[in-house]
Amino acid sequence: MSVVGRKNRTGLRFALALACTLLFLFPIYWIAAISVKTPEEIFAYPLVWLPGSFNFNNYLVLFRDGDAWSVFHSLVTAGTSTVIAMVLGTFAAYSLARYKTGGNHLSLWIISQRMVPQISIAFPVFLLFVSLKLIDTYAGLIILYTAFNLPYVIWMMRGYIQDVPIELEQSAMIDGLSPFQVILKVVFPMVRAGLFATAVFTFIFAWNDFLFALILTRSEVVTYPVQVTGYFGSQSTFWGKIGAMSMLGMLPMFFVVATMQKYIVRGMSMGAVKG
Amino acid sequence: MTRIFQFRYLILAPAIFFILLIGLYPFLKLLITSFQNITMFADDYGFAGFVHYARLMDDGRFWASVLRTVVFTAIALPIELGLGLAMAYLFLERVPLKQVFVALILLPTVISPIVAGSTWRLMFDNRFGPINQIIGWFAGHEVKLLWTVDTSLAWPAILIADVWQWTPFMFLFLLTALSAVDQEQIEAASLDGASRWRTFRYIVLPAITPVMAIAMLIRGLDLFRIFDIVWTMTQGGPGTLTETISVYAYQMAFREFDVSYSAAFALAIIVVLTGVVLSFLRMVEVER
User: Fold this and answer.
1) How far apart are CA A131 and CA A140, in angstroms?
2) Which residues is B38 bridged to in the sheet?
3) Beta strand B43-44 with B37-38: parallel, antiparallel or unpaired?
4) Are residues A235 and A249 in the same domain?
5) Phi first, then psi: what are they for A134, rounded to 5°?
6) Are residues A157 and A48 in the same domain?
7) Does B105 contact A20 at a Cβ distance shorter than 8 Å?
8) A203-225, pLDDT tens digit by residue?
């Protein structure tokens, strides 16, 4: 093929790729645009495709009315449950990976817990939490997110630990390190990237969760996805608030796609595809 | 040896304790409750036999929700796969700014399904949504389609939102798989005069099948449980037209408080899905 032909084809691919990207990006642009529009711009016809100015009033309203606390609630529950699940899960994963505790059956049982439909466990958990007075508390959501994400953490970290050459641990043992020290000083540094990627995904799962939060919260610890759905009313829909709250909830994800791209396939396939 | 023996259980026990909370307790609770007779109005803890399971088998609304969910999965999955594959082919060769494009395309997949559903509900708004406006440009007159209310448009609207959110997921998996295909084999085949279709059918497709199968199973399981997008866009309506299994289960448990019936319902879902999940996991284990 001639150089010109090659260039043209690259140009064509670029144009197609750009069109594709814009198509997928448009709804996100639209919600972002709504979040900085004035009410007049939101309810204008014909539509306002480009907001006249950045109007942060929709965001200010969220903070003034205290609705923005829902983002804080999401941060606390997703953050705390991620830390607990990572600590407990990584040690458990080490036990499964290196001591083969429970063999394959235990590992399979653990990860299968993750794949059960949320709706089917939500109901008995709801009944349990009512009797334990854990409804609408940080503790309730954190406990449930920890339990729900632990199988994922264990499964992912088991894979990452299995990738570490066992000889390193054996020689550390010979040097007189205790099993606990081996994990902290030899294994953790080796799986640092895996720990980070798994933590990010665990956080996302809890951050994006809707069903558990819908069922287990009332008013005190409502998370941002539940808050967003509250703005759709039978009488009126609060477009500006939906836009602003959605943007706040989306913020961490911009960071994720910018930095975590090469971990996404492994993270989303539960380690089945190494990417 | 005893020290190691204890250590390995010591570091496993706390995690197992938490997992039992979702892995064992709900199962037992559902099992017991499903054989009692508890509703919003009555707490009857006596043994009720299989009445709730019998009612489930006879519940037309339940079977309709199963059928809807299966049909929707059967439609959405191939569309997401096909579009994802086409896009993966586009990005397989040199594209300027590839990394930036891929990152931006992935955004829909990592955002909350609630945000995705809300965004599309606003996009589909009959008066102030851009979809009707764009259709209007092509139609040449004002269009005021009631996407989330009209019986013939509610499902297409949900489908578009789901395809938008999850095609990037398929795209990324297939891009990863295609990048790993042996290029020399493809070149050799084309030198031998094999058509592009035959090269795809006999060299590329077998190579990407394992990753494709995993991506389809993960998406298939997600679609089977679909709740968030439906809930934000239509809440299962109009009527029960878009009521999926999870939406119906939610209605019975948390709107009607039909406790024992919901327990039988939930247990049935768990049993059916566990079979699917276990066969999926066997595959994953083989991959390792």
Assistant:
1) 12
2) B43
3) antiparallel
4) yes
5) -105, 0
6) no
7) yes
8) 999 999 999 999 999 989 999 99
Q: Where are the beta strands (DSSP E) in chain A?
A: none
Q: What's the pLDDT at B4? A: 60
Q: Which residues of B fall within a CB distance of 8 Å from A125?
A: 21-22, 25-26
In terms of residue numbers, what domain contains A26?
Answer: 3-55
What lies within 8 Å, CB to CB, of B5 at 6+ separation is none
Q: What is the ipTM of this complex?
A: 0.91
Q: Could you say which DSSP state residue B41 is in?
A: S
B273-to-A118, B61, B171, B279 alpha-carbon distances in Å: 12, 20, 26, 10
Query: Look-up: residue for tokens 């150089």?
Result: A3
CA-CA distance, A66 to B148, in Å (whole number)? 30
Using the beta-carbon criterion (under 8 Å), do B269 and A120 form an inter-chain contact? yes
Mean pLDDT of chain B: 89
Low-confidence winner among A179-183, A227-231, B143-147, B191-195 (lowest mean pLDDT): B191-195
Asked if residue B15 is part of any domain, the answer here is no
Interior angle at CA B246, CA B243 and CA B247, nearest 5: 40
For residue B2, pLDDT beyond 70? no
Query: Structurally, how many domains does chain B consist of?
Result: 1
**What value does the mean pLDDT take over residues A131-147?**
95
Closest residue in chain B to residue A84, using alpha carbons only: B15
SS3 B37: strand
The CA distance from B54 to B49, in Å, is: 10
Name the amino acid, one letter, at A247: M
Name the closest residue on chain B to residue A27, using Cα atoms. B119
* Substitution target from B115, B257, B270, B288 for chain A, most A beta carbons within 10 A: B115
Q: pTM of the entire structure? A: 0.91
Please give the residue range of the domain that contains residue B141: 59-287
- Confidence at residue A83, expressed as pLDDT on a 0 to 100 scale: 97
